[in-house]
Amino acid sequence: MQSLIVMKFGGASVKDANAVKNVASILKQHPQRPLIFVVSAMGKTTNNLVELAELSRAYKKQEALAQYQKIKDFHFSIIDELFQKDTKHTVYQEVEAYFTEIQEVIQGITLLREFPFHLHDRIVSFGELISATIVTAYLNKIGLKTEFYDARKIIKTTSLAGGSEVLWEHTQKKVKETFLPFPEHICCVTGYIASNLENQTTTLGREGSDYTAAILSNILEASEMRIWKDVDGVLNADPRRYTNTYVYPQLTYQQAVEMSYYGASVIHPRTIKPLENKHIPLRVKCFLNTELEGTVIQAPKHITQPPKHHAIIDKFNQILLTITPKDFSFVMEKHVDEIVSAITHAKLKVSLSQNTALSYIICADNNHEQIADFINELSEKFDIQKQDKVYLKTYLFLTERLADEEFFKAILIQRNGSTAQMVIPE
Ligand code: ADP
Ligand code: ASP
Ligand code: MG
User: Fold this and answer.
1) For ligand 1, atom 15, which residue shows the shortest CA distance?
2) Whole-number Å distance between alpha carbons of 146 and 199
3) Per-residue model confidence as pLDDT tens for the chain (426 residues)
4) What's the CATH code of the domain at 360?
């Protein structure tokens, strides 16, 4: 097979007209084919569409209309700048048609008593559809032959609110049918969105465009996946919270998974597995300075520069639950079994657990519905204390002793080899 590179441009890299022009210049510097790239919704469009869906669902007609207009104006101002208000260009009609469709879907919701989540997914899907349409049109305008691909026709999933599971066999077939033999043109694929076997729109979960690129890379056996970010690479801490951050030149797949699992939002946690399974390196590059090497994530045998500094990752919106048997019995196998079953049933996302003689303690994502289900299942036999407004701080790749002042504020601390974690009140 020819050597394929799959790229991904996230929301920040297409947040305005200049950003789209920058994407075009990056692609211009890459004449090798085949080339597939995945694109996210522009800037904060997905958040804005989620808000639009919520307003429509709540029958807040005026606010929904204002929100709709805001999203429309945002996109048309980018189009005006990229196409110099040449309203005869087909991009104007194509994007207008999407906005007509959004209006129809919203009107449909106001007549419904229920709000099936596939309609929610349908609304949010327009972010990627519109973004990919604009980017494809612009690349063709400047002479880079590009075709638009709607991932709903390529990636098949189950139907789950908040992020569906990929149906790999169906998806493999569709991906190969679509892209093999590799075309000469650049392929621009919508990130994040997919469809179920009934062809209803689904999504891969928030920030899921990285995962779209990883699915394509896996199935088409890419030689590299490259994601473009507004940071220099994978840093040892979130630069929005910490100063003096350090770029990791190389990380193993496992190190990257640990970082994203515990909350480093630079890579979607599901992205790494499809790449690891096919030994495909993932390069994280900076779209603001393409000269920088960035970070390469790959198998341990290729690593020549292990992390020189430890990573610090904060995960917010956590809850600490202390579960104690009501009859003063020890927390033994049977209790642990009951607690773990309740975690599974409630789909709690647990990032840390610990047990003492008389209690079992977990730190989990503070999802109110899941926590209520969990407590409900256990409340007959156990007392459950909740402490919310806490966050989980994780240190990875530690070689030194910890001397962090937050250590003293922590209400729970765990250390295991080079990893230390603490739960701290916000
Ligand atoms: P995208 O444009 O692909 O959606 P995101 O905004 O989701 O990009 O991810 C990039 C952002 O992730 C950065 O701007 C940075 O603020 C944040 N971030 C959090 N943790 C890290 C980290 N460890 N390394 C790099 N960036 C991080
Ligand atoms: N646009 C989607 C989101 O904001 C997916 C992505 O950007 O990766 O969640
Ligand atoms: Mg994003």
Assistant:
1) 238
2) 25
3) 579 999 999 999 999 999 999 999 999 999 999 999 999 999 999 999 999 998 988 888 889 999 999 999 999 999 999 999 999 999 999 999 999 999 998 887 766 667 777 788 999 999 999 999 999 999 999 999 999 999 999 999 999 887 899 999 999 999 999 999 999 999 999 999 999 999 999 999 999 999 999 999 999 999 999 999 999 999 999 999 999 999 999 999 999 999 999 989 899 889 999 999 999 999 999 999 999 999 999 999 999 988 999 999 999 999 999 999 998 888 888 888 999 999 999 999 999 999 888 999 999 999 999 999 999 999 999 999 999 999 999 999 998 776 667 777 899 999 888 999 999 999
4) 3.30.2130.10
100 with 225, same domain?
A: yes
Grouping H, G, I as helix, E, B as strand and the rest as coil, residue 37 is strand
Are 272 and 260 spatial neighbours (Cβ–Cβ below 8 Å)?
A: yes
Domain-located, residue 327: yes
Pocket test for ligand 2, best of 206, 210, 266 (most atoms within 8 A of CB): 206
Q: Pocket around ligand 2: residues whose beta carbon is below 6 Å from it? A: 10-11, 40-41, 46, 127, 191-192, 206-209
> What does residue 376 show for φ and ψ, rounded to 5 degrees?
-55, -45
**159 domain residue, yes or no:** yes
**Structural domain contains residue 70:** yes
What DSSP designation does 287 have?
T
Ligand 2: which residue has its CA nearest to atom 6? 207
For 46, the enclosing helix (H) or strand (E) is: helix 45-57
Q: Which of 205, 229, 253 is the last residue of a domain?
A: 229
Domain-embedded: residue 352:
yes
- Residue-number span of the structural domain to which 376 is assigned: 311-425
149 CA to centre of ligand 3 in angstroms: 19
Question: Same domain, yes or no, for 203 and 331?
Answer: no
Same domain membership, residue 320 and residue 214: no
**Tally of domains within the chain:** 2
Calpha distance 243→238 (Å, rounded): 9
CA 359 to chain centroid: 34
Q: Are residues 344 and 200 in the same domain?
A: no
- Judge if the upstream peptide bond of residue 34 is cis by omega within 30 degrees of 0: yes
pTM higher than 0.85 for the full model? Answer: yes
Answer with the one of 182, 212, 229 that is the final residue of a domain: 229
